[in-house]
Structure prediction request, 285 residues.
Amino acid sequence: MTKQPDTHPDFEGAHKYVLDSELASIVNISMSLEMPLLLKGEPGTGKTMLAHAISESLGMPLIVLNVKSSMKLVEALYQYDTLTRLNDSRFGDSKRDVSNIDEYIKMGKIGQAFRSDERTVLLIDEIDKADTDFQDDMLDVLDQMEFDIIETDRTVRAKHRPVIVITSNAKKDLSDPFLGRCNFHHIAFPDPKMMRKIIHVHFPSIDTKLAENTINAFYSMREIDGIEKKPATRELINWIRALDADPDFHAKDLIKGKLPYMGILFKKSQDYQRAREITSRRKLI
Prediction:
């Protein structure tokens, strides 16, 4: 098969998305090979935001399929609105043609990506929530770039192959066939050096002491034993926003072990209490 020319620009990041060269490379090679990119990593590492960044950077519409544990594949492809058709047939006051089933077919998220007049970024978020049959059948559809609407005996074919980003929080193992049909990248949690870059992207004029002290305190709190949901990058950004907005707060307070607004960092009651107990007994910095 003749290789299609690479007509898309390279992805190099977006306005507020900082990435390393390895991640940029796997994104670009996945687009060139027209393969789904599977991203794993703990919550808050930027898996979902990567799809938003690709959409922003390359000027492609973003379509998001949020996977649910009870979801059936057909819901992601299309929905047949039988209830509306039944009501229309009963009351006869609709402008729709009741005899035309196509009038009652609505595209799901994958269907929308296939029918789009321009190439899209299709984000399939938290695929590990779905069962194995959903995962494997979905990739069959994405391989073939088509699916059938049973009610009308019609085949929907993709106008453009979307850029496909699939995320997993690794809560459940994915099947070997599924893994074999994707490119894979694990997004590690940012180290302090990378986090400084991220913070300066979000807060270009941030005070140096505030940035350094909050980052140090943040990583110290992530290391507290017994925390179920460690604070992620978005929590750090919101924490800095809150501290910066407080006229009575001073960056040097963090060095003294004073850590206000811990509820921004810890969203589970047991984590919040655990962090308060530990920080009340020792300085984190």
Remarks:
- The longest helix spans residues 208-222.
